[in-house]
Amino acid sequence: MDHVFNFWLSVIAISIIGALAHFVYEWAHHNRTIGLFTAVNESTWEHIKIALTGAFLWGLYDGFVYGYLPNYFLAKLTSLLVIAITIPSIFYFYRLFAKKSILALDISLFFIAIILGQLSFFGILVAPTTPYIVEYLATIGLFVFFGAYMTLTLKPLKTILFKDPITGKFGFRAHTHLQKIKAKAKSRLKSATKKK
Question: How far is CA 124 from CA 117, 127, 137, 163, in A?
Fold first, then answer.
C-alpha cells in the first residue's frame, strides 16, 4: 500500500468528516448521542473534538490496513495527541497577538493539525519497531484518550478550552439553541404577564 497516497487520502477523509461533524449536531436536531461525536458549541474543545472524530472514524480504515504493524497503536495515539495539542497551542498563541479569532486562520489550523497528526502517524508507523511494552501502553492510552474524548462533552472542565465564546457556557448547555429557547420562554412569560 502506498503510504503517500494513504497519507493524503487520510488527510482529506479526516478533514471532510471533521468539517461535517461541525454541523451534524444541528442537522440531527440536537441529539445528545450525536453530540458526543460532533460540535455542540463553539468552544476550542469542540473544534478539537471534530478533528478527533474524523481521526477516530478514519481509524476504522487505517486499523484494517495498518493494524497488523507493530507500531500501529503508538502511531494512532500519537496522531490523536498531536491534533489535540496543535489546535489549542496555535490558536491561543496567535490570539495573543490578534486578540480575536480569525476564521481563515482557524480553518487553516484545523487542516494543519490534521496534516501534522497524519505525518506523525505515518512517521511512527514506518519507524523501527518499538518494544512490546510501549505498544501495550499505547493501546491502553488509546482507550483512556477515547474515554476522555467522550466524557469531556458531558462533563467539560470549567476552563477556557471548554468555554463557548458566544454564550460563556460549557458543553451541551452552551449550545445556542438552548439560549434561544430560554429567551423565547422569557419573552412569552413577560408578554403573558403584561397582558394580565
Answer: 11, 5, 15, 34
Give the count of domains, the chain. Answer: 1
Buried b or exposed e, range 149-182, using 16+ CB within 10 angstroms: beebbeebeeeebbbbeebebbbbebbeeebeee
The pLDDT value given to residue 57: 96
pLDDT for 66 equals: 94
Residue 123 belongs to domain spanning:
3-195
Q: With bands split at pLDDT 50, 70 and 90, how would you rate the model's confidence at 173?
A: confident
- Residue 25: the pLDDT is 92
Q: 86: which 3 cell numbers? A: 496543535
Per-residue pLDDT of 101-117, as tens digits, reads: 888 999 999 999 999 99
The shares of helix, strand and coil residues in the chain, as percent rounded to the nearest 5, are: 75, 0, 20
